[in-house]
């Protein structure tokens, strides 16, 4: 896990939860969500995918993508 | 002239007596009749009395009665009778003195007595020289009162008096003394309490000022219902009487209330970590209760915590591995149970509360198995990082 993800998880714990899934051990889930390449981030809300993105990016941009997916205005 | 004739008759009869021989007469009734003046001797005075009433018809009950032969007229036959017994003495009349007869006794013979009872005998006349083999006899006119104390057990009471004796059989009960009472005096009762008196022997003739008394051997049970307020209970038995005071409480018709607790019905965002840390949930009631309590899910499934009710508290204790809460979902729990106070007033318990999400900012590791419950059922947005270890 990139340090930036850990920071974001802690900083935004009151807004969203961060979870992690090991692709090598959980093939069923990665097949279900067609995960290829890494790192891939899926944003879920009420059981549905509301955002999907990947690749390296600055922390602020990373948070903003999540908030946008959740229709939450950024700081 | 009449007097002269009488005198002549007497003299002639006296002369006759002196010359006539006759058999000894032992008929006492005739002798008594001939002793007209009842001085014990038949002599000239009796002849004179008959002669002085010669020709008369005296009443039968007249005294003295010169009609010696009781034929209704005083005549020569009467004079002859007196003359024929002239000089004889008459035995004094036998005086018949009636002996007092025993008529009745109270209590009746063969009945039970108390040690200090009084036995009263009634006679038809005043008895004299009364003696008893036990107790003390007091003569009061035609009655005799015999007072104890008598010795416990069989009693053969013999009373003697001039001219009679009578034996009466009784059983003397043991004296009955108060030993204890439960609940003790000066305490509080409920309307339907039972007060139990204990004696050293079986009491008899038990009465109480309130309630219903049931004698069971050496105990007497007094059952209500008693009237709320001060109670002065007097119990009387054959050997005594005692009064005890109580206060009868108003009947409890109020069901116990839930006054406070770790959680309240309808609570949301309950911090499960704090509860898990305390390892217990407490519910406090308005009074002491007994009953049961359990912790369930909203679906009615028991969580597995240990429930108990003690004093005025219901307690749920955490069993390791059964901690409350979830990292990504709000969880609703229900405390259920039923308690009752000492009067039997019942209260159903149903306290619903929902715990807050326990996520603490540290990313959660998920897998194929937990993905649905942690991610898809999450009550909060969740970002999943799909990664590969290098």
Topology:
The complex is a heterodimer of chains A (75) and B (390).
Chain A (H helix, E strand, L loop, with lengths): L2 H9 L5 E6 L4 H6 L7 E6 L2 E7 L4 H11 L6
Antiparallel strand pairs in A: 2-3
Chain B lengths: L1 H18 L8 H7 L9 H9 L23 H9 L17 E5 L5 E2 L4 E6 L7 E2 L3 E5 L2 E5 L5 E9 L2 E9 L5 E5 L5 E2 L4 E6 L7 E2 L3 E5 L2 E5 L5 E9 L2 E9 L9 E4 L5 E4 L1 H7 L1 E6 L4 E8 L8 E5 L2 E5 L13 E10 L5 E10 L8 E3 L4 H6 L5 E6 L3
Parallel strand pairs in B: 2-8, 10-16, 18-24
Antiparallel strand pairs in B: 1-3, 3-6, 4-7, 5-6, 7-8, 9-11, 11-14, 12-15, 13-14, 15-16, 17-19, 19-22, 20-23, 21-22, 23-24
Helix pairs in contact in B: 1-3, 1-4, 3-4
Structural class of chain B: mainly beta
How is the biggest beta sheet of chain B arranged?
4 strands, antiparallel
Q: Name the shape of chain B in a single word.
A: rod-shaped
Number of strands of chain B: 26
Shape of chain A: globular
Determine the mean pLDDT of chain B: 88
Q: Portion of residues in helices of chain A?
A: 25-40%
Q: Ends of chain B: how far apart?
A: 191 Å
Q: For the largest beta sheet of chain B, what order do the strands appear in spatially?
A: 1-3-6-5
- SSE class of chain A: alpha+beta
The count of strands of chain A amounts to: 3
Largest sheet of chain A: 2 strands, antiparallel
Fraction in beta strands of chain B: 35-45%
Low-pLDDT runs of chain A: none
Major beta sheet, strand line-up of chain A: 2-3
Largest interchain contact: A-B, 38 and 29 residues
């Amino acid at each position: 896990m990139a340090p930036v993800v850990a920071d974001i998880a802690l900083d935004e714990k009151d807004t969203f939860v961060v979870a992690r899934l090991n692709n090598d051990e959980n093939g069923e889930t990665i097949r279900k969500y067609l995960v290829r390449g890494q790192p891939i981030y899926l944003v879920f809300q009420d059981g549905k995918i509301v955002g999907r993105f990947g690749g390296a990016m600055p922390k602020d941009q990373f948070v903003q993508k999540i908030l946008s997916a959740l229709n939450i205005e950024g700081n | 002239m009449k007097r002269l004739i009488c005198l002549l008759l007497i003299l002639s009869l006296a002369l006759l007596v002196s010359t006539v021989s006759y058999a000894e007469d032992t008929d006492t009734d005739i002798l008594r009749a001939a002793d007209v003046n009842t001085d014990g001797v038949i002599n000239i005075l009796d002849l004179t009395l008959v002669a002085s009433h010669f020709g008369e018809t005296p009443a039968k009950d007249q005294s003295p009665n010169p009609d010696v032969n009781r034929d209704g007229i005083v005549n020569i036959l009467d004079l002859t009778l007196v003359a024929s017994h002239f000089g004889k003495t008459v035995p004094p009349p036998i005086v018949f003195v009636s002996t007092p007869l025993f008529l009745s006794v109270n209590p009746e013979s063969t009945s039970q007595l108390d040690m200090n009872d009084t036995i009263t005998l009634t006679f038809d006349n005043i008895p004299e020289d009364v003696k008893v083999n036990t107790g003390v006899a007091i003569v009061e006119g035609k009655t005799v009162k015999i007072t104890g104390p008598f010795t416990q057990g069989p009693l053969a009471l013999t009373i003697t008096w001039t001219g009679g004796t009578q034996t009466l059989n009784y059983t003397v009960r043991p004296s009955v003394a108060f030993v204890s009472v439960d609940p003790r005096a000066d305490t509080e009762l409920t309307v339907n309490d039972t007060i139990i008196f204990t004696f050293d022997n079986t009491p008899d003739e038990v009465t109480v000022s309130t309630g219903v008394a049931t004698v069971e051997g050496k105990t007497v049970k007094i059952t209500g219902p008693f009237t709320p307020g001060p109670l002065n209970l007097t119990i009387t038995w054959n050997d005594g009487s005692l009064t005890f005071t109580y206060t009868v409480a108003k009947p409890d018709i109020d069901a116990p209330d839930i006054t406070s607790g770790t959680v309240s019905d309808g609570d949301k965002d309950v911090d499960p970590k704090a509860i898990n840390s305390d390892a217990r949930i407490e519910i406090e009631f308005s009074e002491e209760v007994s009953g049961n309590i359990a912790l369930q899910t909203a679906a009615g499934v028991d969580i597995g915590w240990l429930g108990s009710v003690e004093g005025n508290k219901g307690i749920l204790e955490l069993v390791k591995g059964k901690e409350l809460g979830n990292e990504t979902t709000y969880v609703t729990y229900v405390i259920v149970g039923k308690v009752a106070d000492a009067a039997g007033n019942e209260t159903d318990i149903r306290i619903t509360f929902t715990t807050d999400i326990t996520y603490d900012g540290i990313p959660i590791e998920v897998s194929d198995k937990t993905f649905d419950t942690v991610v898809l059922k999450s009550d909060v947005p969740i970002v999943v990082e799909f990664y590969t270890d290098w």
